[in-house]
Every structure is written in structure tokens, then in C-alpha cells.
Specification:
This protein is α/β, with parallel strands linked by helices. It contains 15 helices and 18 strands. The protein has a domain of 110 residues: Alpha-Beta Complex (Flavocytochrome C3, Chain A, domain 1). The strands form four sheets. Strands 1, 2, 6, 7, 8, 9 and 16 form a seven-stranded mixed beta sheet that branches. A four-stranded mixed beta sheet has the order 17-15-10-18, with helices on one face. Helix 1 runs parallel beside helix 4, helix 5 packs across helix 15 and helix 14 runs antiparallel to helix 15. The protein binds succinic acid.
């Protein structure tokens, strides 16, 4: 594993000390930072700018019981049904019951949700929810508004320091305990050791492992790879949710076309204009995402087409532009007027239900390491996430991990520093290896891996495809892991190959169809639902 090869020595690199380190600048990371006791120092690092997280792209919104006619029990039940018997009821109950309180907190810090003329919050509906319970902002720009209000609040806190454009290479570990992270600070082109009493990983998902995805460039699975190398337990990586409706136009980025559009009555039709969803499921366009994605793939095969279409043209144009201003603007860019034209869509990788295994508060199996948001596996989503539950999970687990990490940090001595780490000698970067570096085309590996996973570990999977993909991934890993890259592209590829292996192994081992994991060779769901957990064997006490 490449953690032993990072050309790096603690005595030769700058150090920074903090009480709590938060890795990731999305909703979960912000919520965690805000929950830390203001008397403690927080350092929040993000891979890119503050305004480039997965959360900011959230369109549909945040699910929470808010309407008087809705009940917590129904939200709990809907979440459990979507999760294919792999949700943990206690976690589901905790998250759903904390929802209204977290919404009130958001209103307090100035988040502006869309409202009706009478001042009541407007609620939308998405697949799998039996009531209107999705709060949204600026029509389809909920993530933007949430992040705006969080950033304003963070800026009011003098104990929170932010480093943008900072890439975390690896976690620092000693005695089965996380002590912070090694980071690369782009601005100074420098690696730095961050010693932290407690570390909270909130680095998001894995969408970039797939050719078709709604996720931004940064979602390369870095957090999961880092945690795995550090010895933390990783769970259920085979469960990747494919959003049914991703804009499919040559040359466009694969923008999400929100499920809220189907919630508002948009129909799915094939190239001949035939509405096909009722043929596959009585819930039609509002069936759970795995069902809709599979049905779309089947209809694409049946009609020999690369996509299907979403049709909202039966609604009044003014209402469409007001409700979906972001989607309307994106589509117009590519010559599609959503009030007059059908929108070409197909499924794309959207959300990883698997991730770092955590307990009810967000603590991982590695001391001092917490994981929240998409990088974690909390037990809320099971085998298939209910739409718009993830922002809620990010808030609830962000709050508990920030609060409890700060409590633990308060009672820790300053013995987490460099003196307590053993430093095995580093292998030199030899000239043969440097020459080989120039032969590796990182962009080509990235593209090949994304296509491979899309073809073999996508919406529908089978043994042959998965086995071949695993062989290729292991082969490529053989010569990529042994490199000492000096670029984010190189470190990312190492992370992506490792996470691909975890997804493929999980998908191969799960010989059943459950939730988002669909095996054409094992279409049945096994009677006993089981999680899959992986942990790397730790060979040395310290990682450098
Ligand atoms: C959407 O707006 O369709 C995405 C919401 C989600 O993934 O929860």
C-alpha cells in the first residue's frame, strides 16, 4: 500500500497543531465544525474552494417531517422500506426524529427555504416518500442555499480556521489511533503534518469512479481510501446508488435532473414518446431509484437508444421556470427549453451507501477518527438511500461527531504530537522509478477505470463482468501503487483504484440482488440480510 512510500519525513516537514481537524468542506463538515466547543481550535480543510462540494449541487432538498399531516413514523417506515432490510432501525429513528430540530437550527442561522404565499414552508415529494416532506430553496438550488448560510455562520466563529485547496494524502496513525493527517497545501506547494487530537472525515463520495455521474470532479473516494489504509473498517461498498435521471447530451457535464421534477408530475417516456414506467412498477415514475434506474436501462435496451426522456411540457411554462430555474438554465445552454422540449436523461452514479463504518455518533473503528456524510456508513441508508435523506444525515451526524469529538479533545493531553510517532526510514525515490513515472498516463488510467466500472459495476452487474474488472483493477494497481507520485492526480488515481477494488470485491461477494445492487445472475434477495465489512490487515504500528 502506498502509505509506506510517501516521500516524506516528519522532521523535514512543517507541522500544525489543532484540537479538531475536519477534512471536507460540505454540509457534514461545516455542521461538525459548528458543533465543536468554541473554546477549541478547529482546522477545516477542503480539497478545492469552499464552494465546491457535493452538497452544493443538491437540488431536490432535505427530507424532514414538517407538515402537520406527516408523521415521524411514516418517514422512518419509508426509509426502512427503501433500504432493503439493511438499515439500522435505531439510526433511522434517531436521524428522522432529529430532523425538525436540525431544520429549526438552519432557519435560525438564516437558511431561506422556499415558502408559500402564507409564509409556510413549501414541501415537495420525491420517490419512496409517501408524503410531501422535501424542503427546498430557490427552486432547485437547495445545496447552494444551505452552504451559503453555513459558510456565513462559520465565518462568524473565530475558532474555525479554513484551508482551501488542501489535499489530504493520508491519515497519521500510531497505536491504532488517528493523530491527524498529512496534507498537501497547493498554495505553497508543500506537504504539511497536521497533528489533531480528533479527526473528522467528511470528504464525500465516490461518483468520479464512474463514467456517468452527477458528482463533481473532487468526489474520488479519497476519504474511504485513506481510512482503509489507516486500518478503519469499511462497509457495504457494493451499494452504489444510480440516480435515474442525469442529463445526457454530448458535451454537457452530466447534470442532475432532480427527482423533484418527477415529484411534480414529470413523465418518463422513450424515444417514441411511450410512457413506460407503469409497465415496470405500479408506483411508476415515483418508484424507488433502483427500480426506476433499472427500468430505464431495460427500456433503453428494448428501444436500442442511449437515453430516455423526462417530459414536463404539460405544465405551465411560468411555473416550470420558477420551480426549476437551475435545471432550465442548464438545459437552455444546450438548446433545450424544458417547458417545450423533452429532456434526454439516463442513469448515473450518484451516491455511495457504503463507506467507513461508524457507530451511532459517527465514530469509526479507529480511535480518534470520526466519519460523517457520504464517506461514512451509518446504517441510515441500508442498501438504498431514500431520496433527500442524505443532507439530513449530514446534519445529524455532523452535530454529534463535532460535539463528541470536541468533548474527547477537551480531556486529552497533548501527547498526540510527533514525539510519540515511530519513524521507519523511507525508501528513496530511485531514478528507475522516476523514469517509469513518465510512462504512466494518469488521465488514461482514470478514463479506463471510469468506463470499466460503468460497464461492469453499474446499474446491472454479473459475475463475469465483475471478475474481469477486478482482475484489470488489480493489474493496474500493481504498477500504480508502487509509484511515489508528487501530484494530486497521482494520489487520486491510487485512491480510486483502491476504492474500485473495494466496490468490485463487495459486488462479487454479494450473490443476490438487494437495493441498489442488482445481479442479473442472482436476481433473488437472500432471506438473511447481511452487511459486508472489510478491514486491511495492519502491518506496522505507524504509517511512516
Ligand atoms: C434529487 O434532487 O433528485 C437528488 C436528491 C437526492 O439525491 O437526495
Amino acid at each position: 500500500m502506498f502509505r509506506y512510500l510517501i516521500p516524506f519525513h516528519p522532521k523535514r516537514h512543517p507541522h500544525f497543531f489543532t484540537d479538531v481537524l475536519v477534512i471536507g468542506g460540505g454540509l457534514a463538515g461545516f455542521r461538525a465544525a459548528l458543533a465543536v466547543d468554541p473554546a477549541l481550535q478547529v482546522l477545516l480543510i477542503c480539497k478545492n474552494g469552499l464552494e465546491n462540494s457535493n452538497s452544493i449541487y443538491a437540488q431536490g432538498g432535505i427530507a424532514s417531517v414538517w407538515a402537520k399531516t406527516d408523521t415521524l413514523e411514516e418517514h422512518i417506515e419509508d426509509t426502512l422500506i427503501a433500504g432493503g432490510e439493511l438499515c439500522e432501525r435505531a439510526v433511522v429513528e434517531r436521524v428522522v426524529r432529529s430532523g425538525p430540530e436540525e431544520i429549526r437550527n438552519l432557519l435560525e442561522i438564516g437558511t431561506k427555504f422556499d415558502k408559500k404565499a402564507d409564509g409556510e414552508i413549501l414541501l415537495g415529494r420525491e420517490g419512496g416518500h409517501r408524503s410531501d416532506r422535501i424542503l427546498h430553496a430557490n427552486g432547485d438550488s437547495t445545496g447552494k442555499e444551505l452552504i451559503r448560510s453555513m459558510i456565513e455562520e462559520i465565518k462568524r466563529r473565530s475558532n474555525i480556521r479554513i484551508w482551501e485547496n488542501t489535499f489530504a494524502l493520508d491519515l497519521l496513525t500510531a497505536d491504532n489511533c488517528c493523530r491527524g493527517a498529512i496534507v498537501y497545501w497547493k498554495k505553497h506547494d508543500e506537504k504539511e503534518l497536521i497533528w489533531a487530537k480528533q479527526t473528522i472525515l467528511a470528504s464525500g463520495g465516490i461518483g468520479q469512479l464512474y463514467r456517468e455521474t452527477t458528482n463533481p470532479e473532487i468526489a474520488a473516494g479519497d476519504g474511504i481510501a485513506m481510512a482503509y489504509r489507516a486500518g478503519a473498517k469499511i462497509r457495504d461498498m457494493e451499494f452504489v446508488q444510480f440516480h435515474p435521471t442525469v442529463l445526457y447530451i454530448a458535451g454537457s457535464s452530466r447534470s442532475l435532473i432532480s427527482e423533484a421534477m418527477r415529484g411534480e408530475g414529470a413523465l418518463l417516456v422513450d424515444r417514441k414518446g411511450y410512457r413506460f414506467m407503469p409497465d415496470y412498477d405500479e408506483r411508476a415514475e415515483l418508484a424507488p431509484r433502483d427500480v426506476v434506474s433499472r427500468s430505464i436501462v431495460r427500456q433503453m435496451e428494448k428501444t436500442n437508444s442511449p437515453n430516455v426522456y423526462l417530459d414536463l411540457t404539460h405544465k405551465p411554462a411560468d411555473w416550470i421556470y420558477a420551480r426549476f430555474p437551475g435545471i432550465a438554465a442548464t438545459c437552455l445552454h444546450f438548446g433545450i427549453d424544458i417547458a417545450k422540449d423533452r429532456i434526454p436523461v439516463r442513469p448515473g452514479a450518484h451516491y455511495s451507501m457504503g463507506g467507513i463504518l461508524v457507530d451511532q455518533d459517527g465514530h469509526s473503528s479507529l480511535n480518534g477518527l470520526w466519519a460523517i456524510g457520504e464517506v461514512s456508513s451509518t446504517g441510515l441508508h441500508g442498501a438504498n438511500r431514500l431520496a433527500s435523506n442524505s443532507l439530513l444525515e449530514a446534519l445529524v451526524f455532523g452535530e454529534s461527531s463535532g460535539r463528541l469529538a470536541s468533548k474527547t479533545a477537551q480531556i486529552m493531553h497533548n501527547d498526540y504530537q510527533v514525539e510519540s510517532i515511530e519513524n521507519p526510514p523511507l525508501p528513496p525515490l530511485d531514478s528507475i522509478q522516476q523514469q517509469f513515472h513518465s510512462l504512466i498516463d494518469l488521465a488514461d488510467i482514470r478514463n479506463a477505470l471510469k468506463s470499466l466500472l460503468w460497464r461492469t459495476a453499474g446499474v446491472v452487474r454479473n459475475e463475469d463482468g465483475l471478475r474481469g474488472a477486478l482482475e484489470d483493477t488489480l493489474h493496474w494497481s500493481g504498477y500504480v501503487f508502487s509509484q511515489q507520485f508528487q501530484s494530486i492526480e497521482g494520489w487520486e488515481i491510487q485512491n480510486m483504484l483502491l476504492v474500485a477494488r473495494l466496490i468490485l470485491e463487495g459486488a462479487l461477494q454479494r450473490r443476490e440482488t438487494r437495493g441498489a445492487h442488482n445481479r442479473s445472475d442472482y436476481p433473488e434477495t437472500l432471506p438473511n440480510a447481511e452487511h459486508s465489512v472489510k478491514q486491511e490487515e495492519i502491518l506496522v504500528k505507524s504509517n511512516f
